[in-house]
Amino acid sequence: MEFAQKIRRIPVYPVAGGYDLGAEMAMLASNESPFAPLEPVIEAARRGLLGANRYPDPSYAPLREALAQRYGLPAERIALGTGSCELILAAGDALLEPGAEVVYAWPAFSVYPHLAAASGARAIEVPLTAQGVHDLDAIAAEITVATRLVLICNPNNPTSTALPLEAIAAFLERVPAHVCVILDEAYVEFSLTVGDPYASLPLLERFPNLVILRTFSKVYGLAALRVGYGLCGADSFRIAVDQVRQPFYLTSAAQAAAVEALRHQDEVERRVVATVAARTQISEALRERGLWVAESDANFLWVRVAQDGDDARVVSALRERGVLVRGGSALGGPGHIRVTLGTREQNEKLLDALAQVC
Ligand SMILES: Cc1ncc(COP(=O)(O)O)c(C=O)c1O
Q1: Could you tell me where the beta strands, DSSP code E, fall in 9-120?
Q2: pTM across the whole model
């Protein structure tokens, strides 16, 4: 079989292994939530399954309405996807083509390089600053008439760092109206720098070319159900990303679970508080042991473990001790590991294992 040229260009996404390793393994490699879904959320998904002989509601009205109410936006400006990952890919499909350009910081979320490779557009990767944050001046300087899409990951994966919204607002002022800006806020609920997950919403009224990307995979703990959403400055983004996809991208069970999850904001806050407490405690413990740890605004840490860049040695030594983390080499940051914050027991296991390894 002769496949399209893009099959040779598209980088293979660095998925974490370990799903077959059993409950003993501390799964700290994929920035998931360590907290199980709430009972009412599971019950809602079960109810969603009862009508599984029918295709799901392709208007996704209950979920879009629930998000519209929560964020004070018209439902027409809520885009949904099979995880926010699918919305990123659909944005690439809808906006990019040969001759077009896409700009993003690097290292950032490992799906971004897929976009240019799949579309034939040109990717411009702008290095993070020495502090591991987006260099917004350098990104702005790369925008040309050919630019169609800019991705800003805040907090950034894999470095865990975040910029304050004032910096992002000032950056948006400099972006021409023809350029779509995706502000990927997959981890924003955990960010003390941003401070409030609603704080970026007023930007949508000032910048119709802005899309704020969120997910149910992180703080809502529904990664396996694959639900992401885009809060759009204009409905044209939602219409375009819906045009490039099949109509049924969210199952009835996933939609029902997401609607129910939104009703439990007290639990969301409880999880954020627990995660931020663990983040402070583990960052300090690692720094006391002489390791460099980035100032994290997310549910994971970015830790320098090998001056010679050989993070693979540390990843495999941790794995032998029952802790699965992600090596920085696969994510654009050799010599680092990215560690998701887990349950109290998993975090302790991580600290013990790291003490033996580096
Ligand atoms: C920055 C960022 N954006 C988007 C995603 C995609 O998440 P999902 O497709 O599960 O919504 C991730 C997942 O790790 C991420 O780190």
Answers
A1: 26-27, 78-81, 101-106
A2: 0.97
